[in-house]
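ping. complex inputs:
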Amino acid sequence: MTINTLAKGGWHRDQMACFRKMEKVIVAMQDPDMGMKMRNQRLLITVIPHAMTGRDVINWLMQKYNMCEEEALHLGGMLVRYGYIYPLKEPRSLVLRADESPYRFQTPYFWTSTRWPATELDYAIYLAKKNIRKQGELMEYEKERYSVLHKRINHTWDFVVMQAREQLRASKQRRKADRIVLECQEQAYWLINRPPQYLSHDPIMQGCLPSNPWISDDTAHWTMNTEVVPIPSRLRVERWSFSFMELLNDAMGRREFMTYLEKEFSAENLCFWQACEDIRHGENSRIVEKVEEVYKNFLAPGAARWVNIDSKTMDKTLKGIQHPHRFVMDDAQMHIYFLMKKDSFPRYLKSDLYKNMLAKAIVPQEVKKSVFPFMRRQRHSSPSPAQAVAQASEEEGRA
Amino acid sequence: MACQGLQKGETLASLKTESDGLKKKLEVERGKLNDVELHQVAEKTEVLGALSIKTRRVLKGHGAKVLCMDWCKDKRRLVSSSQVRTSTDLWTREHGVSLPCTWVMACAYAPSGCAVACGGLDNKCSVIPLSLDKDENLAAKKKSVAMHTNYVSGCTFTNSDMQMLTSSGDGTCALWDVESGQLLQSFHGHTADVLSLDLAPSETGNTFVSGGCDRKANVWDMRSGQNIQSFESHESDINCVKYYPSGDAFASASDDATCRFYDLRADREVAVYQKDSIVFGASTVDFSLSGRLLFAGYNDYTINAWDVLKGNRVSILFGHENRVSRVKLSPDGTAICSASWDNTLRIWA
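pong. complex structure:
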């Protein structure tokens, strides 16, 4: 796995290699002779066969791979996170506890590697089943997804409901213990493999909230989504998690990320990247002066905002600076870009800063097209961007 | 490099046979890497429901065929050309100034929204700064940036107002510094007029694709000027090329009445969008925001919306009374704008 394969989307191939390794461990754990000792676990009044405790898992890993408890906890945690082992108590908490908490192996049918990608249709059927079985007990996010799916694949909804009913009927034929086992397995699978949601971000296909301005004559959608707003919309914040590029392309996203980096004392990386972009796309006449600035601020020994580049790239860049040209910073820029993408970006998505932003974000109410077309709303002209720039420079002049 | 004289024992005919043989070998090698067809993978995706897309605005006011248009980043203004009509605010329908440039075949909005580029049969591409004063003589502020030896067919700004990429009937593409008008890089490789180009939305931002009358779509490295990939499967001129939102693939529209989808990593064509009932050439394409839909404008006055993954047509949009010359998605994906030889622009949503 190199920078190049990552950039060209080789992640799936690499993920598969990881899955294969994890599966090897799992298979070894279930080996009849050298594997783990299983026992029956009681869940309320039903007995679940073939279960083990978290403590069992850790001890087995420590013994088999000759590792310390911390490492066994970490590896075991990964197995739970990727769905190969699932907890029987508190199924939504995907962690491995080193105590008497019961766990089970996921059936290979539901392994991520065999069933990827999880389709929306399967998920819809699963949610429909749950809805029918336990009226009103869907979780908040499940309720949301259910209604979104209901709208989106409405034309196949009869099929979804029919399938759900069929599957429920078939499962009633099974023994209660088996049924509970299957339900646990299925639930564990969907906790991990929620299908990705991109279509909801496509206004022409899914509509947009509160309404598409061109259809309803209401510019609220544009007002809510201008470059800088106090509170951004939910979809916009979600979009930042799709890829690093999406985050950087959105001015607000970039600002938020900068705030996060400042807390981590690595904001110079983003500043450096922005300065390099400026050189690459800027005027020819200012290249030399900009390269000088970047060197002084980011690359010179003892620089105020020194960036951490490997020595080979640093040497190459310093040499290139002696004859500065538009692309002289490319290698260094790429290095820092991928550093941020692989390290800071995933951590940002898990951070409280991002999670709070997502929680605060608005999900606008849908506004249908006005029933009275003759009550045409006043259409206001917005300032042309050229005006905005002129105003800004005027204000600067005055200041 | 390409202009050595014939070596001993070579004739034009023998070289041609050798080149054809090499091309066949390349196709065989490409075929070996092919593991699964796009439509097979797409079987797992859901079928799209019916779309209800209608005309929401019709813009009249051009006195001639509208050949080109481009959106402003503010999502509601656009620039359109036969004559250059700057910053028409679609929302309030107020027209910007008309510029007396004739023969304009290509136009583009600068990322900042403060300038507009246009070029065409004058073999040049010029940049016009936009100002608030409607009476100001904008024609006088027009600045020539690109100079080709034949008509300019396409132009676009790169990530800033300072650099511009153009394609030309002289068979080349070129990268220009706007401030000085200096040629930064030229791209040679097409053997006929280049009709269209598009910048890649990639993280490293260094490539673009061009399509031309030699039926080839070429991918170029902007730094070195090298042609890094080439695709030749259309049966006639390629009129338009457009990248898929992820940057890993692109679509093309051609006079052979088909649109095709090429995957850059697989290095081959992966889908053809065609129907027996579609007889006239396609002149323009653009993707919806997620990339699931492909909108294509045709010379039979219609726009067809295709399901990119499954390959079937999802919708036909009727309304124009002459050829559709350009379709373009608005920057936030809420609408499609189409320009036509019937002198109007339409907004669809």
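The mean pLDDT of chain B is 87.
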